[in-house]
Amino acid sequence: MAATKQKNLWYVRQARRKRRFTTLLTVFFILVQVLWVGVPIFMTVLWSLVDPNHPWSFPNILPEKLSWGQWMYVFKYTNILRALKTSYTLAPCAVLLSFLFSLPTAYVLGRKQIPGKKFFQTIVLLPIIMPGMVVALFLSRVFNAFGLAQNFFGLVLAHTLMGLPYMIRVLTTSFEAIPQDVIDAAENLGANTFVKIKDIFLPMVRPGLLAGMIFAFTTSIEEFNLTFIIGTPTFETIPTILYSFLGYNFIRTNASVVALIMMIPNIIMLFAVENFLKSDYLSASLGKL
Amino acid sequence: MERKNVSSIDYLLLIPGVGFILLFIGSSIFITITQSFGVLSVTGKSQFTIENWKAIFHDKESLDSILFSLKIGLLSSVGTLLFAFPVALFLRKGGSGKRFLASLIKIPLFIPALVAAFLIINLISYHGIVNEALLALGIIKKPLRMLNDKFGWGVVAIQVWKNLPFVLLILSSSLASIRDDTIDAARNLGAGTFSVLFRIYVPLAMPGILVSMILMFIKAFGDFAIMSVAGPTYPPSIALRMRNTATLFQEWDKAAVLGVIIILTTLFITWLYSRLAEFVTGRK
Amino acid sequence: MSRLILKDLVKKFDNVAAVNHVSLEVEEGEFVTLLGPSGCGKTTTLRTIAGFYQPDEGEIYFNDRLMNNIPPAKRNTSMCFQSYALFPHMNVWDNIAFGLKMRKISQPEQKKRVAQALEMMSLSGMEKRMPGQLSGGQQQRVALARAIVTQPDILLFDEPLSNLDAKLRVQVRVEIKEMQKRLGITSIYVTHDQDEALAISDRIVVMNQGQIEQVGDPQSIYLHPMTSFVAGFIGLANILSGQVVARKENQVQLELPFGRFWAFAGGLRASVGDTVRFSFRPENVVQYREGSPNKVSATIQHAIFMGDTIDLFLDAKGTRLRARAESAAKLKPGDIAVFSIDETAFQFLE
Prior knowledge:
- The complex is a heterotrimer.
- By secondary structure, chain A is mostly helical.
- Chain A contains 13 helices and no strands.
- The radius of gyration of chain B is 23 Å and the shape is globular.
- In chain B, 49% of the residues are buried.
- Chain B has helices at 8-36, 51-57, 60-92, 96-105, 113-124, 129-136, 153-176, 180-188, 193-221, 225-230, 238-248, 252-281.
- Chain C has a six-stranded mixed sheet with strand order 6-7-8-3-9-10, sandwiched between helices. Chain C has a five-stranded antiparallel sheet with strand order 13-12-11-14-20. A five-stranded antiparallel sheet of chain C has the order 15-19-16-17-18, with no helix packed on it.
- In chain C, a hairpin with a 2-residue loop joins strand 17 and strand 18.
- Chain C is elongated.
- Chains in contact: A-B, A-C, B-C.
- Chains A and B meet through helix 1, helix 3, helix 4, helix 5 and helix 6 of A and helix 1, helix 4, helix 5, helix 7 and helix 9 of B.
């Protein structure tokens, strides 16, 4: 009897050890992830704060002196302010346009059984699938012909093109998710088309709409290929400025500042919308080709 | 789904979205193709010729670029998968710490590719923290050249870092669609950890694995920005070479040939993977 | 084949005991059903036997082997899931052969056994189909074939019939019972459906709130419920309490609001003056005939025609009673009728 008891205790301990192992593994993964994401960001923050008069170079482990000097410099002597203005006027225009264009399309793809639906859904993904540089380079030929190159409206159209796939796919998924019963019930209770759109469709796709807008917005802020070919040098956005700092005249401290300027709003957005993105819209809408 | 009665209005409603995309992407692809044969050329004369194709296929630099981009595409997609799959498996079952972990992992998703490139460049540069740490630990005697290296490890590292969360999202959703009962049934029938992994998880997640591999390959293969800041000086990536041919040397027709090659490779790889998907999942 | 012994089993989730000190012995080849409402701990018990959960206290034995820490893959049990849990990416043949592959059984032997199982479940000719192409009943058969083909020591069923329609359910439960008797495999069957439990089991274990209420063969569970939970959960019952007012030989007289009644005491130990709880079935409350004992007159509130009988809801001086009448009886709501309750019908409860 005592032996059994002993053995049983051993089993209980074994189970506890297993649970502890899982916890340990979680902690380990979190630590690795903190290093994986945190170290690159931390280093960039440090670089952006290096004092211009006390350069940080080998073999110093930490910069000698920290200051806002680099930030001042970037804002004073580079085109960053203009680029910021361009980026943040371009993005809302592109989001608005892609929303207007995608709403009717997403409605049809999400709620109607039409022949060739799969084909259209694949077409929608083309801007993501097609190699960006090829599209950019040869779309610029077309834009040239129509006077849209080096033109703000042309840039808005280009950014709309890149935002459309996310917007359409996410909205399509949202439209699909509305149960037919709900619509039938509304009709049964006497709703006309206008009421159906106002009280059923729009409120029910709102979470998806928000997700789609965020994806389209960040896509526009990040867009490089099209802007670089069609917009520069007339229009500089933050990515093209960063690219120039990373290219032939590589200035690490300036690049750090620009990288942070570009990254911080995005990360804030990520945490702000974390709650809205519970049901991983991106994977739901891109999970199948 | 609404009852059928397809009307032409439905197709009209598709025009703003699908039509817009078809117009822009279609016209650019159309120009790429015609121009690669000298038709509708920028230079003014429009005459059908296959000289540009011949020239590209006799140009060693272009062939090197193609091979290099293929290599980076493959390594990036496989590398990201190898990192993402175990994490996705680990995250399948929720736990208190795992929610936090999941949102931590998502951060690079919202970091623009160029910024990601810069973040990693900082780490792996000649006197970057990785080299310094390895030196301090005595693992290496001389700093390693990881940035602009001949092989392209720097580019692969950036691609993996940036796209890990994207691939993770796709894998997680296909792993989440596997029922717990299915796993329990396999264990109940005598499958150990290894068998459950390779006979249940991997085959059932295969559609997600293939989709993420395709998207990763396409991204890395046709990439311009990351390759140009972190890639080797020679060979340039195919997209970089194409752009240089067009805007630096003003040889648009030859650039168009490279463009067509990029598009064809992309389509071919997509087709290959989808055949593979059909084969693996045993459908049709 | 194995004897199964559960000793004082406890399984907690977040410090709430889902299974609370359950002890049970199941003989070799016996078919035992765990019956209870949802959340009573029956499925948790089953999953603990399968090894998906580790018990927090207590022991599980297959024959003399302590199984507590053996992983599910090494227990040689076979489980039939409510969702069937067929592998969606494998065809019927591969699904059935999965357990054999895991056990490293030789190819020819695998072939022989799978073919046998297919034959037994009348699935021959469907080997190449994918689970998605099968009807619910066929999927159920594949799940059964997959379970028996490994010749498990214990078969575990987790509400396997609840996804089938009513007619098929009755048919398949007969098949399960026949198959189990033929193969003689010890079986534990979980259900919340009392008809299923009564029809299929050698013994029924009624569970409630993580504990065993009563264990017995179907007849004794139905005819002699020992707790008010069992009386109420299985079949319909009038559950009342009243005072013992007289006792003679093996009968007691009970005082109820609507009269005094004689009942066989059975093993009841109560003496005069004690209050006791008891139950009787509606079918024991029948229309009064000359010479019947225990007369009750009551107002009929509802009379529901069921085909073979009429279900009656009675009001006997403020106490609500359920009763039965023959289908030819002419009774309608508002009538006052006279009934009698058989002395043997009274079951005293703990």
